[in-house]
Amino acid sequence: MIELRKVGYSYADASVLKDVELRIGSGEAVALIGPNGSGKSTLLKILCGLLPPDDGRYLFCGNEISKASLADASFSKAFHKRVGFLFQDSAAQLFCGSVYDEIAFGPRQMGLGEDETRGRVEDLSRMFRIESLRDRVPYHLSGGEKRKVALASVLALAPDALLLDEPMGGLDPKTKRELRELIISLNASGMTIICATHDFEYVAGMFTRALVLSQEGRIVRDGAYAQIVSDRAFLSEMNII
């Protein structure tokens, strides 16, 4: 599904990612692990098309994702329907006047009829147990409620791949457990999951593979998730724990 060939990215004069090479197959569940500043969020933004790589190539299902290809409205619309992204700060992606309109926004933009859109909103509202929030202004919700609404709005497009940036951050233990079970079930249904995380306690059982980014923005290890997170000496050496 996803292939990066020597991808690099810089902000101003600061290099964040260097020579990143990876392949992720359809249906995989992959954790991105690394110290603060290692480029995890930047890598996710490249994978979802928010940032075009400065160097190298990004291929999604064989199609190159670049500034030029995303300038094609039809191509961009099809790509963004297939790849969903949950920001680390959920409030950053909430902008509608009500929770209902927030979840309905994506399907409406993709041209779905109002009946089908309503069905998706109702199904996701039940899934996340947020029916009572339907007419609330997202800005006024709690952190956990915002995270649920943001994720519901992403899933309303039924993406093939779901990218998550530290999804457990700032959530209470109960909500973390609920989110963990949801992500596991989404992956079991065939959805590709790629998630930046450092919260190893609450993501147990979510991933089969881990990619480790160094402080210099290079992938220094790629292997079985359980094996990598159990290597405490390695994680300590990498300033991850």
Describe this structure as you would to a colleague.
The protein has helices at residues 40-47, 67-70, 73-82, 99-109, 114-128, 143-155, 173-188, 225-229, 232-237, and strands spanning 2-11, 14-24, 29-33, 55-60, 63-64, 83-86, 161-165, 192-196, 209-213, 219-224. It is of the alpha/beta class and 241 residues long. A six-stranded mixed sheet has the order 6-7-8-3-9-10, with helices on both faces. A four-stranded antiparallel sheet has the order 2-1-4-5, with helices on one face. Helix 4 (99-109) crosses helix 5 (114-128), helix 4 packs parallel to helix 6 (143-155) and helix 5 packs across helix 6. It is globular and about 50 Å long. The two termini are 31 Å apart. It is built from nine helices and ten strands. A hairpin with a 2-residue loop joins strand 4 and strand 5. Helix content is 37%, strand content 24%. The model has no long low-confidence stretch (mean pLDDT 94).
